[in-house]
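I have been asked to look over a protein record a colleague put together. What it holds is a sequence and that sequence's fold in C-alpha cell form. Please read both lines and tell me whether the C-alpha cells look consistent with the sequence. I do not need a full report, just your reasoning and any doubts. This is what I was given:
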Amino acid sequence: MEDDWTAAFEHRLLEQSLTGYVTGPQEVEGLASGILSACTWATEAVMESRPTQRKAPWAPWWNEDCSAACRQVVKAKEEGLDREEVHARTSHLWYCIWKAKRTFFDKICSTVRPDNIWGINQWYRGRKSYSLPTLRKPDGTLAMTNVTKADLLHNTFFLYTPTTPIGVLVEEMPQHNELSFPAITQGEITANLASCSNKSVPGAHRTNYRVLRWAFAARGDLFEALYNAMVHFEYHPVCLKNALIAPIPKPNKYDFTSPKAYWPISLLKTLSKLFEKIMAARFMVLSGLHGHILPEQFGGKDMTSCMDTGLSLIHDIENAWVKKKQASITLLDISGYFNNIDHKLLVKCMQKMGYPMRVLGWLKSYLSERTASFRINNEIGTAFELKG
C-alpha cells in the first residue's frame, strides 16, 4: 500500500506543480496547503473507506474451530437432539473459545517488546466511542443539540479575560546575546518524526503520522523548504491554524451532564504538529543550555519529569521535619491557563532571552488568528477564534 500511496502522492504534487522554491508568505501558504491536499487526495484514491461500525466488531481471537463448533451447537438445537448431545457440543464450543483466546494472546505475548509492553493493557478495553449526552447549563437548562453543546463547552473551557499584565519584571530582565538558530535539516525532521506515534489522532485533514512519514520519505525536500520558509518569512500558514476540539469524558465521574466532566482535546494537523515539535525541542534545548529557565522549574525542561518534581517536594518536606518545622503546600489549578497567556509578554520574554527576530516573528504569526471547532458526535461545529 505504501508504494501505491507514494505514487499517487507524487502524481498529485506534479499536477499542482509544487516545488521547494518559496519567495514569500503567499508561496508558504500554497506549499503547506498543497502538501495537505496531496496527502488527502492520495489517501482517498488508494485506501479503502470504511464506514463507522454500528455493531461490535468480530472478536479478533475467533477462528475457524470456533465457527465450526458454533455451527454444531446450532445444528443440534435445530434437529432437536437430546439434551446430553447439546451439552456436549456446547462444552466443546467453550473449549474451542478458550483455546483460541489462549493461542491468540500467547502470540501477542511472544512478540512483546519493552517499548510496547503497556499496549497489552488495551486487551480488555477495545476501541471506545462516546456519544456526548445532554449537558446541563449553569442556569439549569439543558443543551440537547450539538450546536448548543458546542456553545456550552466553548463558554466553559475557552474563557478569555482581557487583562493588562505587569511587565516590569520582564523589562528588568537582562538582554542576552542573540542565540544561534540554524536552518532546519531533513535529518532533524527525521529524528523528530521517528518518535511520533501512528496512533495519534489526526486533525481535520485526517493525515496521521504514518501517512506523513510516507510523504516525507517521498519528498523530504518540500518539508525542509516549507519549515525553513515559515521561519524565514515569519509566517505560519492559515491552513495549519485550525484545531478540532474533541470532548473526552474524565474517568471516575458520575455526573456526565456537567461540562467539567470532560477534557477538551485539541486535534491538530500532523504537518503543523511536527514543525511545532521541532521548534519546541529547540526552545527547550537552547533555554536549558543558556540557563534561561530557573532550576526550581520542572515543566518545559529537558531531563526532568513528574518523578523529579515529587522527589524534590518530598526532600523539602523531610528536610523541614528534620529541623522540627512544619511543612505546608499550596496547589493551584488555573482554569484556562494556556488560553489566557499574554502573547505580547511571552514574545517579550523570549526576546530578552536572545531568540532571533525571525523566530519571534514566526511565533507572533503562530499565536495570532487561530481558530477551533468542536467535533461532537461526528459533527463539526462552527469555527471560533482563540483569543489571547
Observations:
- Residues 64-122 form one domain.
- DSSP finds 13 helices and seven strands in the chain.
- The CA atoms of residues 307 and 313 lie 10 Å apart.
- The radius of gyration is 27 Å.
